[in-house]
């Protein structure tokens, strides 16, 4: 079978590293890895062994041909989002337009944009599905809404370009062995506490999250590739979401995590407080997507890899 050439923009990102690893020895995938710091990509690749990939500076995108473009560029870490709200629209638009310019002369190429569950707004008092509206206080916009609005704006632009192959995958949660432990995510804080043998302090409020395993995100993108031509948006989901206290129970039983309830703890909520931040719609089944991992199963495999030094 003919190989598919996939260009990854933002190849040093957390999500990109998982995709690279999943596709590393896939004979039907040829990878073009674009990054602002190509040397960091080479450093990462040196840990994976030999496979077909080319590493390029991100401003070289468009000089060659590819069958698929996956846009992994963006500000994803909570603290960075909070500290750089003025950059959200500029960065989102700049790289999106760069890829759309490429599609204008290569209309057969599939563009997979990694969007966000934040496109639904900031009201996650219950899970969302394909019938849930996006809700933003248009006359009283707050900084925590900017990220979702930027993603929604990109999605609307993509649906308007209905003649082109563009898919938006809304990521609600993602966890892999390549997580940056310096970021203020719940899971990075848990892993950091385990490594340093510290007790985790958490609020009494339970929240629900759906963390994708890298292989499941890769499978979802592969399903999009198979079903070209395609212009649509899909919520990305694992086999089953989990509550914060289910997650804490897993880490307590598997790794001896100690935690305490502290009402004074303030978490970083750069895109708003999200108590039930996961989708219950299963629209992606239409293109054959079936996740292999639940949230807890994904945490189990990737955490084991972290502590095994893989």
Task: Provide an overview of this structure.
- This protein is an alpha/beta fold.
- It has helices spanning 14-23, 38-45, 78-83, 88-105, 143-160, 186-196, 214-226, 244-255, 295-307, and strands at residues 4-9, 29-35, 53-57, 68-71, 110-116, 165-171, 200-202, 208-209, 231-235, 242-243, 259-261, 276-277.
- It has a seven-stranded parallel sheet, sandwiched between helices. A three-stranded mixed sheet has the order 10-8-12. The chain has a two-stranded parallel ribbon with strand order 7-11.
- The longest helix is centred in the N-terminal third of the chain and has 18 residues, at 88-105.
- The radius of gyration is 19 Å and the shape is globular.
Helix-strand layout with pairing:
Blueprint: E1 4-9, H1 14-23, E2 29-35, H2 38-45, E3 53-57, E4 68-71, H3 78-83, H4 88-105, E5 110-116, H5 143-160, E6 165-171, H6 186-196, E7 200-202, E8 208-209, H7 214-226, E9 231-235, E10 242-243, H8 244-255, E11 259-261, E12 276-277, H9 295-307
Parallel strand pairs: 1-2, 1-4, 2-3, 4-5, 5-6, 6-9, 7-11, 8-12
Antiparallel strand pairs: 8-10
């Amino acid at each position: 079978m003919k190989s598919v050439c996939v260009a990854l923009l933002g190849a040093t990102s957390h999500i990109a590293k998982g995709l690279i690893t999943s596709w590393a020895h896939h004979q039907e995938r040829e990878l073009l890895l674009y990054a602002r710091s190509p040397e960091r990509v080479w450093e990462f690749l040196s840990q994976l062994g030999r496979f077909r990939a080319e590493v390029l500076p991100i401003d070289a995108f468009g000089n060659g041909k590819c069958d698929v473009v996956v846009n992994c560029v963006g500000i994803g870490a909570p603290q960075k989002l909070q500290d750089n709200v003025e950059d959200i629209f500029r960065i989102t638009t700049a790289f999106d337009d760069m890829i759309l310019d490429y599609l204008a002369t290569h209309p057969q190429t599939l563009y997979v944009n990694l969007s966000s569950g934040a496109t639904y707004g900031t009201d996650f008092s219950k899970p969302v599905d394909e019938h849930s509206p996006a809700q933003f206080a248009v006359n009283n916009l707050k900084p925590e809404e900017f990220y979702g609005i930027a993603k929604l704006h990109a999605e609307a632009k993509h649906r308007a370009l209905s003649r082109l192959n563009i898919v938006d995958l809304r990521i609600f949660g993602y966890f892999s062995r390549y997580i940056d432990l310096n970021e203020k995510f719940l899971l990075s804080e848990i892993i950091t506490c385990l490594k340093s043998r510290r007790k985790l302090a958490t609020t009494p409020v339970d929240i629900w999250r759906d963390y994708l395993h890298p292989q499941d995100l890769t499978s979802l993108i592969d399903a999009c590739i198979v079903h070209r031509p395609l212009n649509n948006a899909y919520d990305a989901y694992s086999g089953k979401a989990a509550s914060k206290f289910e997650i804490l129970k897993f880490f307590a039983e598997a790794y001896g995590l100690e935690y305490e309830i502290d009402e004074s703890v303030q978490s970083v909520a750069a895109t708003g407080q999200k108590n039930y931040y996961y989708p219950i719609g299963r629209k992606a089944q239409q293109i054959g997507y079936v996740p292999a991992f639940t949230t807890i199963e994904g945490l189990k495999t990737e955490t084991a890899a972290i502590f095994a030094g893989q």
